[in-house]
Backbone:
C-alpha cells in the first residue's frame, strides 16, 4: 500500500530578529512579517520552492551559502543543516507558501526492506523484544498467544508486501482493545505532580535533560531501535523548553495546588491556572499558534539504522470488500498542538489522552513521513477573536483532563493505561475540544 503524504510538506520555523535570530518554530504556510525569518531544515539536497503575493524580495542564508530566491523557482539546499529565508525587501508583511519537492523527510524504509537481508533466525533478538512488549500489552494468555503467532508470521513472511501485522478488530469490539491494555500500569502520569517555584529556574533546569533519540531494542541487535528522532529543524531553546512548559501546563490543569512564579523585567506573575499562564504570555508579547492535527499513529515506532520503518498498526473496519476481505486502514491519531514563540518562552506542546495518560506533552519529534499531517483547524493569536479562542482551547483541555482524573479516582479507579481505552482514546480528547469550539 502506498501512503499519501498530505498536509505538512516541510518543517519550518519563523523567527523574530533584531540583529540576531531567535529561531522559533512555525509549521504551516503563514503570514511572514517584517523582522521575521523562515528557518528551513535541509536533509541534504532538499529541494524547495516559495510563492508569495505582493512586492517582496528574499534571500537564503545558511551553511556558508547566500543566494536570492525567485517565486515558484525551485531551490536546492545542498548541505545538511539549517537555512534562513530572510526578507531583503518587505514593507509590512507577505503571505508566504513553502513547498518541499525532494528529500523533505527523514529517510524511511518498508518492513520488507528492513528485514530483506536477514534470515528469520537472525531476527530472533527482535522477536524476543516484541514478545516482551506483547506480555506487557495483555495479561490474557489467549491474547498473548494470538499476538505472538501473528508477530512470528509477520517476520517469516516479511518479504510479502500484502502481509499486515498487527490488524486490530473493529472499534465496536472495544473489549478486544481493553484486553490488550491489561499490562499497562494503573497510575496517573508522573508529570501531573505539583510544580512550584520560579519558572525561569525550571526552564534553566530543563536544559540538563537529554534530547530523545531511538534506543536499541536489544544488545544483540543494536541497529534496530525503538522511538523517534529529535526534529533538528527545531531550535535548541525550543527543544529544551517544550518538556518543561508541557509539565507546567499539565500540573496547572489538574488544579492540584501548582503555583508558578514568573519574573519578567516589567512584572512578576503568579500563575495558578493554564488560562493565567496564557494571559501572561499574551501580556509579555508572545505569539501562540493553535492547531488541531490528524496523523496516522506510529505505535510500533521501529528504526533500522538511521531510517524509520514504515509499519502502521491496522484496523479492521468491518466493511466487506468484493474479494471477501474487510477493508483495513492504518490507525489514526489526533491531538491539539500549540506553538508558543516570543521573547522569553519558545515551546511546541500537544494535548491528548494516550497510553501514558492524559496531559500536555512536548512535541519535538521528527515524525515519520508516512504518518502524514492534516491540520483541521488553525488559529493564530492576534487575529480577530483568536486570543479568546486559544484561551478557551486551554480551558477545555484542562476540563477534559480533570474529568479523566476524577474518573480515575472514582468509577475507573485501578484501570490500566491511565484510562486509555477505558475512558477514551486520543481522538476522544481531541473531539471534545473541537466540538466545544467549532461545533
Residues:
Amino acid at each position: 500500500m502506498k501512503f499519501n503524504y498530505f498536509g505538512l510538506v516541510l518543517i519550518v520555523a519563523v523567527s523574530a530578529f533584531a540583529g540576531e535570530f531567535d529561531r522559533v518554530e512555525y509549521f504551516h504556510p503563514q503570514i511572514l512579517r517584517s523582522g521575521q525569518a523562515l528557518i528551513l531544515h535541509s536533509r541534504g539536497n532538499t529541494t524547495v520552492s516559495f510563492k508569495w503575493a505582493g512586492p517582496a524580495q528574499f534571500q537564503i542564508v545558511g551553511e556558508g551559502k547566500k543566494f536570492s530566491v525567485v517565486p515558484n523557482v525551485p531551490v536546492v539546499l545542498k548541505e545538511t543543516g539549517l537555512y534562513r529565508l530572510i526578507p531583503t525587501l518587505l514593507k509590512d508583511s507577505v503571505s508566504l507558501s513553502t513547498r518541499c519537492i525532494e528529500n523533505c523527510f527523514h529517510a524511511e524504509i518498508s518492513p520488507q526492506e528492513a528485514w530483506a537481508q536477514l534470515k528469520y533466525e537472525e531476527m530472533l533478538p527482535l522477536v524476543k523484544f516484541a514478545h516482551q512488549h506483547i506480555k506487557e500489552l495483555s495479561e490474557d494468555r489467549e491474547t498473548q498467544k494470538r499476538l505472538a503467532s501473528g508477530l512470528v508470521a509477520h517476520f517469516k513472511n516479511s518479504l510479502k508486501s500484502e502481509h499486515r501485522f498487527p490488524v486490530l478488530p473493529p472499534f465496536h469490539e472495544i473489549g478486544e482493545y481493553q484486553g490488550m491494555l491489561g499490562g499497562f500500569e494503573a497510575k496517573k502520569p508522573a508529570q501531573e505532580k505539583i510544580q512550584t517555584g520560579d519558572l525561569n529556574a525550571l526552564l534553566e533546569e530543563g536544559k540538563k535533560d537529554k534530547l530523545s533519540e531511538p534506543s536499541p531494542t536489544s544488545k544483540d541487535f543494536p541497529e534496530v531501535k525503538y522511538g523517534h528522532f529529535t526534529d533538528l529543524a527545531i531550535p535548541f531553546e525550543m527543544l529544551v523548553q517544550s518538556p518543561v512548559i508541557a509539565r507546567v501546563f499539565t500540573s496547572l490543569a489538574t488544579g492540584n495546588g501548582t503555583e508558578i512564579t514568573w519574573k519578567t523585567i516589567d512584572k512578576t506573575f503568579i500563575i495558578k491556572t493554564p488560562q493565567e499562564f496564557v494571559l501572561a504570555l499574551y501580556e509579555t508579547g508572545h505569539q501562540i499558534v493553535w492547531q488541531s492535527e490528524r496523523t496516522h499513529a506510529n505505535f510500533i515506532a521501529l528504526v533500522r539504522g538511521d531510517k524509520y520503518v514504515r509499519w502502521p498498526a491496522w484496523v479492521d473496519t468491518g466493511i466487506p470488500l468484493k474479494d471477501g476481505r474487510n477493508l483495513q486502514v492504518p490507525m489514526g491519531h489526533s491531538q491539539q498542538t500549540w506553538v508558543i514563540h516570543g521573547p522569553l518562552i519558545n515551546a511546541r506542546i500537544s494535548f491528548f489522552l494516550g497510553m501514558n495518560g492524559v496531559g500536555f506533552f512536548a512535541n519535538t519529534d521528527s515524525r515519520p513521513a508516512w504518518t502524514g499531517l492534516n491540520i483541521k483547524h488553525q488559529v493564530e493569536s492576534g487575529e480577530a477573536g483568536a486570543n479568546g479562542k486559544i484561551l478557551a482551547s486551554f480551558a477545555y483541555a484542562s476540563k477534559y483532563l480533570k474529568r479523566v482524573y476524577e474518573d480515575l479516582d472514582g468509577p475507573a479507579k485501578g484501570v490500566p493505561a491511565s484510562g486509555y481505552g477505558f475512558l477514551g482514546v486520543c481522538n476522544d480528547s481531541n473531539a471534545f475540544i473541537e466540538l466545544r469550539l467549532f461545533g
Residues 386-409 form the longest helix (24 residues). The two ends are 34 Å apart (CA to CA). DSSP finds nine helices and 28 strands in the chain. The longest strand covers residues 93-102.
